[in-house]
Amino acid sequence: MTTAAPYLSVNNVEVIYDHVILVLKGVSLQVPQGKIVALLGANGAGKSTTLKTISTLLRGERGDVTKGEVQFKGERIDQLTPNELVRRGLSQVMEGRHCFGHLTIEENLLTGAYTRSTSRSELKASLEKVYHYFPRLRERRSSQAGYTSGGEQQMCAIGRALMAKPSMILLDEPSMGIAPQIVEEIFGIVKDLNSKENVSFLLAEQNTSIALRYADFGYILENGRVVMEGAAADLSCNEDVKEFYLGVSGAGRKSFRDMKFYRRRKRWLA
Amino acid sequence: QPAEQYIALPSYRVGPYAAGGSGFYGGIIDYFNLVNLSGGVNGVKISWEECETEYNPSRGVECYERLKTKNGGATLVEPLSTGVAYGILDRLAVDKIPMTMIGYGRSDAANGKVFPYVFPLITSYWNQAAAMIKYLGDKEGGMAKLKGKKIVHLYHDSAFGKEPLPVLEALSKQYGFELIKIPVTPPGSEQQSQWLQIRQAKPDHVILWGWGSMNAVAIKTAQRNGFPREKILGVWWAGSEEDTVPTGDAAKGYSAMTFNTPGNYPVMDEIRKKLYDAGKGNMADPARIGSVYHMRGVSAAILWVEAMRTAQEKFGKGKRITGEQMRWGLENLNVDESRQKAIGVFGMLPVVKTSCDDHEGSGAVKVQQWDGKKWNAITPNWIVGDKALTRKLLEESSAAYAAEKKITPACAK
Amino acid sequence: MFMNFFFEVLIGGLLSGVMYALVAIGFVLIYKASGVFNFAQGAMVYFAALTCVGVMDKLGVSLWIALPITVAVMIVLGLAIERVVLRPLVNQPEITLFMATIGLAFFIEGLAQLMFGAQVRKLELPIEDVPWQYLMDHYNILVSQFDIMAAAVCGLLVTSLALLFSKTKIGRALRAVADDHQAALAVGIPLQRIWAVLWAVAGIVALVAGLLWGARNGVQFALTFVALKALPVLILGGFTSMPGAIVGGLIIGASEKLAEVYIGPMVGGGIEGWFPYVLALLFLLVRPEGLFGEKIIRRI
Amino acid sequence: MTEAQMQMNEPEAHFGADASAARRETGPVILDLKNISLSFGGVRALTDISFDVRQHEIRAIIGPNGAGKSSMLNVINGVYRPQQGQITYRGEVRKNMDCHAAAKSGIARTFQNIALFKGMTVLDNIMTGRNLKMKSNFLMQALYWGPARREEIAHRIKAEEIIDFLEIQAIRKTPVGRLPYGLQKRVELGRALAAEPEILLLDEPMAGMNVEEKQDMCRFILDVNDQFGTTIVLIEHDMGVVMDISDRVVVLDYGKKIGDGTPDEVRCNQDVINAYLGVACS
Amino acid sequence: MLYREAGQFKTSYQADGQIFPIMQDRIALLALLAVAIVFVPLLASPYVLSAILIPFLIFSLAAIGLNILTGYAGQLSLGTAAFMAVGAFASYNFILRIPGLPVLVAFVLGGLSAALVGIAFGLPSLRIRGFYLAAATLATQFFVVWCLTKIPYLTNYSTSGVITAQPIVIFGYNFDTPDRKYLLVLAVVAVMALLAKNMIRSNVGRSWMAVRDMDVAAEVIGFRLMRTKLLAFAVSSFYCGVAGALYAYAYLGTVEPEAYNLDLSFRILFMIIIGGVGSVLGSFLGAAFIVLLPVLLNVVAHSLTLPTSVASNLELMVFGALIIFFLIVEPHGLARLWQIGKEKLRLWPFPH
Ligand SMILES: Nc1ncnc2c1ncn2[C@@H]1O[C@H](COP(=O)(O)OP(=O)(O)OP(=O)(O)O)[C@@H](O)[C@H]1O
Ligand SMILES: Nc1ncnc2c1ncn2[C@@H]1O[C@H](COP(=O)(O)OP(=O)(O)OP(=O)(O)O)[C@@H](O)[C@H]1O
Ligand SMILES: [Mg+2]
Ligand SMILES: [Mg+2]
């Protein structure tokens, strides 16, 4: 990874929840400017925790960063408030939607622009852009978010982050609960923003195939450690990745129906 | 190590009633200090310990239990709180510690045969209620004139406010005035509807049986409803500076009962000179010397010191007396005029003379009126109500208590 | 005559209701911003009023000088509360924050009395609490001029706060915070700053309430209890609504007075303590979120 | 395109290619929905939808976001009451059924936004699933003695079986709030299974999982279906999964039914392709 | 010495379902009980017994009651003292009016009366939630106290509404000294705490927690909301009722309805929040905190020879500050702090 100086870098971070649960055991990763980096890993590997560490949202969940540091645009950010981070252009889409249930979809989107002090018309333009990306949201714009469907909420959460016009977005499982067509569209949007507006992305994703298809680099997290990293293309050629993350073994893709045994993944590191 | 007479003071100086508490206990401690400065009671100095109860029964009980065993054992206790007093009532006889309830608590406790360790000194609520009616009757020009009059009893809706009802009801029957009972839900910070009702009823007198912030609100609300304050007569818990000062001019003309004649007394001068000028006063604000609560505290302390003196006469001068002996002292108190003169409080409190039958010892009160700046006594003489009536009630009520508790009434030795 | 009395009770009740609303507004402010019931509001009312008269006393200055000093103190208090109490408790369960405000209440009560003593004090505002002669003479209806002023002040406060919060960015942000602290942080809402500002504003509202209630009842510890009067108002009007506080206040004020006067004597009186609660409770059975409160979203 | 990327595109290209071969025998219709319509204020979530579910089959519901899939499940288990329509369950027309009655009659489900009891441990969560089978009253439970205790242990054994089955032994005593998303989904399945339901409604059970975990989940679902004969209604956005494991698929769009049939039929339905799949069938 | 789970294998679910699955805990608890039953009455001064331990135990019981409702069933309530009052005044009336009624039976009847009142006032909880419910439960508080002051029958026509608890005599044995009262209270509290723990680990308890955590889901699973919530109200009020009776009979002796005022409700609420919402152990820890801390502060403040009013105010401030401090350190209360301590101990000497 020498193409660009790291825009965001996480250095050897260790995180403990509730004073006793050690979750991240020295995670380091870099996101170069203008690149898309995928963070892969099984359930509970610590992807969300890594993202929350970067966005300093960990504090509210009784998690502590006990070691390491995070730098964004060359400055340490681990002591900043999330608000300050958003101002500096770093936004996060949290896992599990987290829409403001009592606000309408449109109000939800507008809160996304809280840090921007722009004119009404610019705001309107941003709003239009989000509606352009997610037409479904336009239809539901005046319903309370709490009453919209799961997928609609997910779109709302992503749209809300876009409203801040960030230069770097942390996406936590954007594809969860989204219809396949829209998933493609979301990643299309990611690519679009990336290439047209030079927005960098760090995305935690379970849908490995699509994530590696759009990402430039990838990190694989296991049990709170980075066990593999590399260019997305290299990763997707790796036999282990193919088998355990992409579901294609030597003999090609197998039907879900025919998985006769629970397969146990080989662990890279214990 | 000279002997010390230790007294337990479960006091309250924070919370809703802090204003009263700090004045009352301030007065007590000021007088104790004064006595100690002049060498104590026949050489026996007084020691005391305070404990914050916040006027809360359960904390009060804890305080009592904590204080009672200290310094060789408490020989007297005064919580100035009905709830706390009830909480420790049953424990007193076991612990052999007398408790005074100066101007509050159950009126029937004046019967020493049933409540040997309880002393509702000076006056009980019942005698006070009787005295209030007496005063109102005199004001009207004779008790007979009360017939057909309307008297409102505006009361704190609690045990305290309901205590005088039997007396008032009996008297209303006897003298033929109409008694209108209007309760105020504690803490009583809103009384618009009550005062509208009062205005509607057009009473001749309003008895304000209030406590704490309820009083100021009552006076203020009377003013906003244009009800003359001259027609309002407060119980003594509604007759302190704390009740009238915050109302500003609204309280001008309002009168209330008291068992201390307002004014200046030699003992107050001494307190001012020997304590406050020397920086040893207990209250933060010297302006409160001689205020109603302070005076009441001083009076309480005087009665206790006199009880000590009396007990020492019998059980040995210059010696620390026990709780039982203190009890005897309280039961054989005689603070007459000459004694008062000697102490420098002549006229400040009525003559107090107790016996086994009468733990109250007086029952006399005065009426004071607020002139916008201070209280002034408006009855030159001490008023005593229909004591025969209150005695009857007292006998009945304490007999019922004795039966319930399986106590055989008898005088303690 | 009968009707006249009825109207007097009604008007008296409505005006008392305004006084309740004044206290309720403080609660609404904090509830809106954090979804938490601020137990310390009563203590803040007391603190503010006591500080004001305390400053007048100790420095010997007039009300007009003491007032800005007190405002400054309340702002500092708000900032300190955010910094010391709330910031470490972001994203904690509501009941935890609620408890923290209880701790805060103790602290503030202690602090107030420590600084200025526990005596009951007089507070005189330039307007007297006497019947308005004009109404008295012309309509034979009794309304205190003080109450009219209180109503005006209250109306002003509510209108300005309601305007501030209704359509602006801040209003939206507040509702967002109340829904989900974590997500609010994630979209860049400066939670800390908003809380600090709101607590400061709540402090000032407490000051206004403290001055009016204090002028009426004397500045004393019992001011902390006026919160109890505001509670039924809150549940009736909805915890999140400024107009709700006013409307709720009027309804509660009027109905409790009417009940006390017309029903009270039948059952021994003193029903004012619980009647508003029962009324509000019955009302909640129909609308569980109060008159103007936000509907509770229950969905799966 | 690199070779890897080609490979990755592949699954979508011919999912279910070999799955259609061995369809199992399914039983009679157990649940029949007729002309169901449901709207919230102005929003029409479901419009005149009819479909049936046969005993022992795996029935998938698919459709774009906001199509009304979750609402459909909510109608089936009585959380929502449709304004119109008729539901026949096990031959009886259901009237006014609330969710408690639905649970009693053997309908269990999982939720799209996990609805576990966050403050309780995994074991306790699974035990709650057995509540309808518990007979002893609270006094006996308070004494924890005799029948109450025996009953508790008997149910505990059942719960442990489920825990073994789902391979979550290690986290039995962990509060579920602390678990990662994927495991929570599994626990939720466990809770539904604990009720030994006749019909199991699963709302996106595989969202947020990687391929391997999805494979595990599929296995669980298939095993439940095989071993206990449980009928399964499944909502899922992963077409690979849907096409592979379901027997019949109903497709919703904007609250309307636009397709119904075997995976292969649905896959080649032009409406479905337009509205949802986006890829023509091969 | 070592606090470990390792090596303790459970061979049956019964063993695993025990209240204290770790052996060291069981031993510690038994030791604690032994000390409480045998040594405390021998060694503790009457002050400690009657002013600290008895109220501590009584408040713990009330806190368990409130914890059942608020901590386990998730229904925030501010009416605890009212239920305690019902328990006390009902017991008083039962003993008064049914000659020869055993005191313990009267306590149970008092508890049952409280349970009935609890059910009545629990009905709104079917529609109202959260702080709205909390504010609405204040209606209970004010209404019950009002009834007690207004209905003379309830206070046996005592003019001022004050009642005096009858002596506690069980099988001819008079519980009149602090140590006897203490043992009685201890027995009642221990038994009821055990029953509470049992309920919580069986289906009722799970139904409460399910309703607390997500009521819609609980309903879908088959719990009946109404029954579950009302049962929680009933059981909780029963506990509070018994605690209230003990408060009158074993502690205060003579009480007025005002003794069960809002202040008391709040104190009990403080206890469970400080101790730990949804934890029986927390109820005890919280009660200890709220009973002991003011005493401790009082002693400390007064030994500093500060002017009393300053000391009293400082005491209040420190009390408030400590509450906030503990919440910041551990929002889930002392019980969780205790648990984390144990978890650390289990891992010791390794940090994680
Ligand atoms: N608030 C918390 N308290 C305690 N433990 C937690 C907390 N949040 C997460 N954990 C633990 O941290 C580990 C990592 O969780 P994390 O959510 O980061 O995983 P993830 O990789 O995002 O998983 P998923 O793919 O399921 O979202 C898990 O084992 C989880 O149990
Ligand atoms: N309780 C409700 N009140 C108002 N609208 C609702 C409610 N429940 C669902 N809706 C609306 O009905 C529509 C269908 O919602 P539903 O949750 O059934 O969609 P879905 O098919 O499950 O979508 P997804 O795949 O995104 O989960 C959505 O537009 C949603 O906003
Ligand atoms: Mg995650
Ligand atoms: Mg859905």
From TrEMBL, chain A:
Keywords: Amino-acid transport, ATP-binding, Cell membrane, Membrane, Nucleotide-binding, Transport. Residues 8-248 form the ABC transporter domain. It comes from the Bacteria. This is ATP-binding cassette domain-containing protein. The lineage of its organism: Bacteria, Pseudomonadati, Pseudomonadota, Betaproteobacteria, Burkholderiales. SUPFAM superfamilies: P-loop containing nucleoside triphosphate hydrolases (SSF52540). GO terms for molecular function: ATP binding. InterPro entries: AAA+_ATPase, ABC_transporter-like_ATP-bd, BCAA_Transport_ATP-bd_LivF, P-loop_NTPase. It comes from Duganella levis. Belongs to the ABC transporter superfamily. CDD domains: ABC_TM1139_LivF_branched. SMART domains: AAA.
TrEMBL record, chain C:
Pfam families: BPD_transp_2 (PF02653). Signal peptide: none annotated. The chain crosses the membrane at residues 6-29, 36-56, 62-85, 97-118, 138-165, 194-213, 233-254, 261-286. It comes from the Bacteria. Keywords: Amino-acid transport, Cell membrane, Membrane, Transmembrane, Transmembrane helix, Transport. Its main location: membrane. This is Branched-chain amino acid ABC transporter permease.
From TrEMBL, chain D:
Residues 1-20 are annotated as: Disordered. InterPro entries: AAA+_ATPase, ABC_AA/LPS_Transport, ABC_transporter-like_ATP-bd, BCA_ABC_TP_C, P-loop_NTPase. CDD domains: ABC_Mj1267_LivG_branched. It comes from Duganella levis. Coiled coil: none annotated. Keywords: ATP-binding, Cell membrane, Membrane, Nucleotide-binding, Transport. This is ATP-binding cassette domain-containing protein. GO terms for molecular function: ATP binding. Residues 31-279 form the ABC transporter domain. PROSITE patterns: ABC_TRANSPORTER_2. It comes from the Bacteria. PANTHER family: ABC TRANSPORTER ATP-BINDING PROTEIN, CONSERVED COMPONENT OF ABC TRANSPORTER FOR NATURAL AMINO ACIDS-RELATED. Residues 11-20 have a biased composition (Basic and acidic residues). SMART domains: AAA.
TrEMBL record, chain E:
It is a multi-pass membrane protein. CDD domains: TM_PBP1_LivM_like. The keyword Oxidoreductase does not apply. InterPro entries: ABC_transp_permease, LivM-like. It is found in: Cell membrane. The chain crosses the membrane at residues 27-44, 50-69, 76-95, 101-123, 130-151, 182-200, 230-252, 264-297, 317-338. Pfam families: BPD_transp_2 (PF02653). Keywords: Cell membrane, Membrane, Transmembrane, Transmembrane helix. PANTHER family: ABC TRANSPORTER PERMEASE PROTEIN (PTHR30482:SF5), HIGH-AFFINITY BRANCHED-CHAIN AMINO ACID TRANSPORT SYSTEM PERMEASE (PTHR30482). This is Branched-chain amino acid ABC transporter permease. It comes from Duganella levis.
